[in-house]
Amino acid sequence: MNKPLAILSIFFGVSCLCGLPEGTTGGVSTTSTDGKVMTITAPDGSIFNHTRFNVGSDESVRFVQPGVNARVLNRISSNSPSRIDGRVEANGKLYFAAPGGLIFGEGSVIQARHLQAMGGDIFDSDFIENRDRYPSLSGSVKNEGLIEADRIVLGGKSVTNSGTVNARSGSILIATGEGVEISNADGSFAVEITEGINASGSMAGDMAGNALLQSGILNASSVELTGSSITQSGKINASEVKFSEFTEISGDNGVVNSSNVELQTKANRFSNVSLSGKANAISTVHLGGSFNEIKVRSAHSLSVKHAEAGLSEVIAQHADFRVDDGDLDIKVSFSPVFTSSSSSLLLGAKDGSVDTAVFDFISDFDQVVIFGNNVDTEIAAGLNTQADDLFVLNAISLEFDSLSVGLDAATIFKLEDENPGFNLSGSNQISDNVSSDQSDGNSLPDGDLAGIPGPSLGGSSNQNVAVPDGVPSLSDVVSQQVGDGRLSEEQLTAAMNLGLYSEYSYLLQSIPEDEVKLIEFGESGGSSTLLGGDYASMSPVVVSNERALPEVSIGSDKGWDTYSSADMTSDDKGESEEKNLIDEGLVSDDQPKDPIPTVRVVGTKPLAPVTRPVFSPQASQMLEQALTPAIKETLKGFSNR
Fold first, then answer.
1. Is the peptide bond before 597 cis (omega within 30 degrees of 0)?
2. How far are the Cα atoms of 101, 228, 243, 386, 607 from residue 212, in angstroms, in the given order?
3. Residue 602 · residue 558 · CB < 8 Å
4. Are 24 and 14 in contact (CB under 8 A)?
5. Confidence of residue 545 (pLDDT cuts 50, 70, 90)
6. pLDDT value of position 460
7. Which of 143, 290, 602, 636 could potentially form a cystine with 315 if both were Cys, beta carbons 3.0 to 4.6 Å apart?
């Protein structure tokens, strides 16, 4: 590397402190040691060359810089990784360039205004010009400790974080590749990954050695993970999270808490993504590039958008988006990569709705499962045409986690129990169509399946399907039917393994329509919307003439309000109020009529809850007819009182 003429190169050695940096040259600085603490006073732009930079668990290195924006570069020439198990502190910007790699051990603490730790080298001229370009990343970076800074960059041939990285008000970038150039655009990272001279142009070449393993904790305002193969089994807490330049993301065992997650695949690759952890809390996911398979799950409402403004189509061969509590809002349309290969789409909201402005794109996929509380009222009704191999079914009994494209035999049995007109496991559905020339059991019957109530079941059931080892022939399955003429779960599974029902799609209503109406009714204001308020429950108290009324033990624990005869505007009103108490059995008719008793409001007694057993189609229809637009507008005024 060429040394800049503006920097005076001097040599200083460190002896007898074998755990601290060794063989250090370069820089205009002063160095002092006090026991196991090394203090380096470094002017802005200092460049140091170390043969090794090891710090023991009980040792510390401190960089004293003229200001928070001052920079110091530590180049480490060793071919083996430098290990830091103690503390390294800097009040400015701290850079490590270590082609042999870096390990921040368990118990280590790294604190700086800005930290950049790279498993590669940088030219002096690039550093002086504030250009973060590492043409060759040959070393690995591993963090098992605590790193704290406003801006943190970890990069190498591979990067592993099993510790904690905190940049709560700033940003974190973790990048892997053959080389990398980092720039700051509008306050955010702009990262360019280079493949290097020896890198293969194939996907296998992308995956070789360029792994990013995140099993620790990342806390920041923004986090970006860049690399071909990314494993996210840790926890990411950030307002903005971006995964970029990837061909593979494995995140089923991780947690992502973020308002916005962007998934930007590697160019000209059909990438795989699985962020299906149940604990994810993702509000919006932005999709860019093409996907072979993508799975995203969120614990609360999720919106799916395109990463580029003005675009709405996402290319994905297999897509699976799920929400456990809330709504799934699809702002894009999906199209499979290849129409000649099998494709699938699963959209599920456990307790909410699946909302999309366009419905007909689902017909582009071979198999579709949509699970939500608005399937009957919106999804099915929104289709211009309904395919013969598409079922619209009630699915109250299904477990959300059991949903899979194509469904399994156990799920089909549950759906049959819940939907009397739905029958896929009846052996006659198979036996009536077993071809007489099916002697080897290696093909499905010719023609359509017949006699199944509900939607017509056309589909391509005449294709030849290779039989997996150990699976009985279709004829054998039928001949072993149980006594009620229904296949067992094991037999249905065997038939499905042969390819039966292989292209069926399902629209599944997760909650009965009457309960959906009740939910919507509650969200619009409930009983207050209809009645304009709540009824007060009153408790009479002792007043003059030694007259008392029995206490009424109903109502809530809200505060007490007092009403007495002084509040009455006329004797007639008082008599009317007492008559009401007599009618309700709270006052005896032979008691003295004066004075009017004081009563206290003990809170509100809500209407008795409307539960599913009292619902009926007639009641639902009456409620719907009663709430005309004019009445709804009138009731809105009451709900605001």
1. no
2. 14, 8, 11, 45, 57
3. yes
4. yes
5. very low
6. 33
7. 290
Q: How many CB atoms lie within 10 A of CB 290?
A: 19
Torsion, Cα of 251, 256, 258, 264 (10° steps): -20
Q: Contact, 198 vs 177, CB < 8 A? A: no
For 629, the enclosing helix (H) or strand (E) is: helix 629-639
Burial of 37 (C-beta count, 10 Å sphere; 0-12/13-18/19+)? middle
The pLDDT confidence band at residue 430, using thresholds 50, 70 and 90, is low
Residue 444 has pLDDT above 50, yes or no: no
Report how far residue 256's alpha carbon sits from residue 230's, in angstroms, rounded to the nearest whole number: 14
- pLDDT value for 433: 47
Cβ atoms within 10 Å of 196's Cβ, excluding its own:
17
Q: Which residue has 């003990």 as its token pair?
A: 602
- φ, ψ of residue 85 to 5 degrees: the values are -110, -10
* Least reliable range by pLDDT among 165-169, 226-230, 404-408, 613-617: 613-617
DSSP label at residue 204? H
Return d(Cα 1, Cα 580) in angstroms, integer: 98
Q: Tell me the C-alpha distance between 451 and 167, whole Å.
A: 63
Output the six-digit token pair for 496.
């499905």
124 band by pLDDT with thresholds 50, 70 and 90: very high
> Which two tokens mark 263?
């998934």
Report DSSP state, residue 459.
S
Cα–Cα distance, 315 to 624 (Å, whole number): 41
DSSP state of 475: H
Given a contact cutoff of 8 angstroms between Cβ atoms, the answer to whether 20 and 14 are in contact is yes
Strands 159-161 and 132-134, sheet pairing: unpaired
| Tokens representing residue 409 in the block | 């035999």
Longest dimension (CA), the chain: 112
Structure tokens at 175: 């990048």
Place of tokens 């990272």: 189
Phi, psi (degrees; rounded to nearest 5) at 428:
-65, -25
- Residues 284 and 296: their CA atoms lie apart, in Å, by 11
Indicate the pTM of the whole model: 0.73
Please report the DSSP string for 285-329 in residue order. EEEESEEEEEEEEEEEEEEEEESSTT--EEEEEEEEEEEEEEEEE
Q: How far is CA 413 from the centre of its chain?
A: 30
* Cα–Cα separations (whole angstroms), residue 618 to 320, 378, 525, 607, 622: 38, 21, 22, 21, 6
The candidate with the shortest Cα–Cα distance to 124, out of 71, 183, 44, 47, is: 47
**How far apart (Å, rounded) are the C-alpha atoms in residues 88 and 64?**
11
CB 296 within 8 A of CB 271: no
- Residue 490, both tokens: 């094991």
Q: How far apart are CA 571 and CA 593, in angstroms?
A: 11
**What average pLDDT score do residues 316-343 get?**
95
Q: What is the pLDDT of residues 485-516, one digit of tens each?
A: 678 888 888 888 877 777 789 999 998 877 76
**Confidence at residue 257, expressed as pLDDT on a 0 to 100 scale:** 98
pLDDT in tens, 178-221: 999 988 766 667 888 876 433 333 333 333 457 999 999 999 99
Residue 605's Cβ-count burial label (10 Å; 0-12, 13-18, 19+) is middle
